[in-house]
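pinned: reference chain
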Amino acid sequence: MIRFEQISKKFALKGGNQKYIFRDLTLSVPRRNLAILGKNGAGKSTMISLIAGTIMPDRGKIIREGSISWPIGLQSGFQGSLTGRENVLFVCRIQGCSLHATKKKVAFVEEFAELDKHFDMTVKTYSSGMRAKLGFGLSMAFDFDVYLIDEVTAVGDVSFQRKATQAFEEKRNKANLIVVSHDMYVIKQWCDAGLYLENGICQFYENIDEAISRYQAM
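pinned: its structure tokens
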């Protein structure tokens, strides 16, 4: 269970104005394979980042039960002056992995991400697609109770997308997914419930088809 208690989050706009994404939001997010739906700017990625703890609310408290991944698909967490390998080693270190576990995870990411020689080049030289593949492989190397996914399934070529789909299927057998995507095929494939965001209001739908219908009627 993830619970928002009186959460407010705003961002500064040009001209000194501010935009509230959420204002005094109280919400319980159930342990389901959940889609977060809404038009651009509704706050989908903001909600994912708040759940992950990569951004903090201006006010309120978020209660998290179980282990939660970083947002898969967001590529801003890498240190550009480090190589792909060094970034993986750094994450393993802050996650408290043993030497044996670290070696296994580095080998997994190196094989999974398919970066070849670029794995030992600095991340600042990577294309956005290469960063996304590194981030995806790194995320799949760890076991979490909940995986946060932000528009990641279109990464790479058809072969890599097939590999990504298989990896999600394996993770879904023992964990839950919270997914942001504009691809309704992906949503129906991975999610069984939905959360629709509009004007700072969140509506939970027990049935994913009802959530999709609400989104498409927007």
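why pinned: Residues 76-142 form one domain. The radius of gyration is 18 Å.
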